[in-house]
Amino acid sequence: MKQAMSAVLISFIVLGVIAAAAWFVTRSAEALGTGPLPSTLPPRNAYILTIATGLLSFATGGVTLLGVRQAKFFTPQFAWLVYLIVSVPLVLLLFTPLQRFDHPAFFGLPPFLMSSAGRTVVAVAVGALLLGALDLRRVMPGLVHESARPVPLVPGTTVVRGLPGRFTPNAWRALSFMQEEAQRFDHAYMGTEHLLLGLLRDSGSQATRVIQNLGTDLPAVKSQLEVVIGRRGSLYTGTSGLTRRCQRVIEGASRVARGDGERMVSTGHLLQALVEQPEDVAAQLLVSSGVTAERVSAELRHLGPETEEPSP
């Protein structure tokens, strides 16, 4: 319920900023004057109005992108609310006829939404909302240079030497799978969602056995996770390498291993550190399926240390 209310609040804030910008731009156009009559606005005030119009228009596109991006913090059943509440009224408004001079506005809508200037602001917001989600790299595979892709996670590389702790072979495989999952979605970063997909790929790993023992439907979790990752597109590809949150999960796994008195970080430790991040989408998917930190910890104690031999 809290997430639903937050999604609705974010949506109305975005819509409010768009409406305010449309109103201001329309009034600015009126103040600057149109038609054969000269403007009565002094040059200094006109220039101030120009700067204010540009800044507010800039803020409108930024708030639209920023507000919609917050959907990534919600579970799938609530993430769609932001897109629905923001995009549907704006798209419908684009197809509503503009107000003609000396004619009433359609459906009694506010005149500033029916003016050309106000409609331009709305169109820019819709473009930022919808077109900003497109990933051109799927249309143009060669757009990203090969050197910009993540460095392979294999022992001895610079990326791996920066990771805390020693990992079991299965854990190394999960980290390697994480990179492959990021490449599969054409992402330049590796996040916790990619890490979870990497953990789920190894049917014989400790993490997978824990999830199965807790009665979770692995294909369903994987399917939901792929929907979340696929929806993000190019808006979420600005970071190269491991994201900070994914780095924190790996660091947390090292602490969990030390707390359990084990010298190797296992896939089970990675799983436990992941579900201990309540603000993370991957963790929320697991918790909603009954995979909580307490249950994972109990199951790890029952299974014992992960074998140091890679799963077949």
What does this structure look like?
The structure is a single chain. With 312 residues, the protein is mainly α. It has two domains: 2-133; 143-303, Orthogonal Bundle (Double Clp-N motif). Helix content is 63%, strand content 1%. The protein has 15 helices and two strands. It is elongated, with a radius of gyration of 25 Å.
Topology at a glance:
Blueprint: H1 2-32, H2 43-69, H3 76-94, H4 111-114, H5 116-130, H6 136-139, H7 158-161, H8 169-184, E1 189-190, H9 192-201, H10 206-213, H11 218-232, E2 241-242, H12 244-259, H13 267-275, H14 281-288, H15 293-303
Parallel strand pairs: 1-2
Helix pairs in contact: 1-2, 1-3, 1-5, 2-5, 3-5, 8-9, 9-11, 10-13, 10-15, 11-14, 12-13, 13-15
Features:
single chain; mainly alpha; Double Clp-N motif; 2 domains; 2 strands; elongated
